[in-house]
Task: structure prediction
Amino acid sequence: SYELTQPPSVSVSPGQTARITCSGDALTEKYIYWYQQKSGQAPVLVIYEDSKRPSGIPERFSGSNSGTMATLSISGAQVEDEADYYCYSTDISNNHKVFGGGTKLTVL
Amino acid sequence: EVQLVESGGGLVQPGGSLRLSCAASGFTFRSYEMNWVRQAPGKGLEWVSYISTSGNIIYYADSVKGRFTISRDNAKNSLYLQMNSLRAEDTAVYYCARDFSVRGVSIPFDFWGQGTLVTVSS
Result:
């Protein structure tokens, strides 16, 4: 089955750039999406189709996909950005939907 | 305002059954593909099942295939998940989430409900 791999945790100081990676096979053939989940809340979409920001998501959130690795970047990370972040894509062999294991971002 | 409200969670014994519901409002439910996603306590997100707008295309995660059944009633703006033969490992918060798709742009899980907790324990 298809898998997406994320680091369990990333830590940055406020104002620094946080980078969260997501690796998997054949990323050039698919889009990556990113979701933010704050403690006790439902997930929220922050990046779609590799690098697009939904309305209402701050400009400090950006995404990229090099083909072997996708990256969510948060420029000038703020304390309010502390959350779990999940990458997502589709296993086109069986139309199953796959989340990465999640990365806990700490900003302090 | 878009709303997805899940209900039907609770405590159930191993081997038991439960039916979850998701009431949709604030958007044209029949035009959106829908999903169930779950999250075990302290764990990550796991996609459970998908249903197309008309209900004629359905997919399940391997972990629930043959035990769970997804369905929808577009007249009632509602999504359902019938869960049978429940196991301890099915314990999780279950979210319903819609897929957005228009003019070539596809955004999975663009909106989520707040979830309902299912606990499988004796």
